[in-house]
Amino acid sequence: MSVNALYTDLSGYYDLMCIDIDYQAQSHAIRRLHLIFGNGGTTHLDLACGTGPHVRHFIDFGYASSGLDINQPMLDIAATRCPEAHFTLQDMSDFKAIESQDLVTCFLYSIHYNGGIEKLNACISSVHCALKSGGIFCFNAVDKDKIDNGLSVKHSAKQENDLFTFRSGWHYSGQGEKQSLRLSIEKANAEGTQLWNDEHPMVAVSFAELSALLAPHFEVHVFEHNYEKIIPWDNASGNAIFVCVKK
């Protein structure tokens, strides 16, 4: 099953799949970084916004927030959750913002959904064009050279009479610009069990390579992947938050 087919079929379960994510803490942390590094403006665009939970928090913070995604069923849910926001069906590797933005975000490692280095570079250029002077681009990323193929995460959640079990983990062959997110979703109830397996192709990049792609467009600051404290990246961990100020 393709990436888009899986998420289209299960778009109604997406929030359940992400039930253990603290959207409020993530949004608040990026808001703090925006207050420190930003230009004082409040226009915001969320790339790969999914069903809009981060957009909801930024609207509640007082931002004029909007989102884009490649999946229309996700955007339909987002529009219900955030009727004040404007959502568009666009690919983040080649998008156009309706108006210039003070803040562009990309949460949940979604920056890696750019299918290769060329598309990632095009996304960075699109973000640069979308931002106002002094605007910032915030996202989280994983370093390909620090991926442990043996690690995965798992959680379960109930919805009515169904028990869902979600598993996911990064995989990188050790060479090239492709990595993958391996995902399985199990749905069990009295009638039986259904299982979906998928492997999402994603761009693989080291933090050194990523910083080099960003440097022509942005002043780059890298922080530990910690949404409770603002801590400079230790140059060792494989997950980080990037804060990029438009030059």
TrEMBL record:
Keyword rRNA-binding annotated: no
GO BP annotation list: methylation
InterPro entries: Methyltransf_25 (IPR041698), SAM-dependent_MTases_sf (IPR029063)
Matching Pfam families: Methyltransf_25 (PF13649)
Keywords attached to this entry: Methyltransferase, Transferase
Keyword match Transferase: yes
A molecular function (GO) term: methyltransferase activity
All residue ranges annotated as the Methyltransferase domain in the record: 45-135
Protein name: Class I SAM-dependent methyltransferase
Species annotation: Vreelandella sedimenti
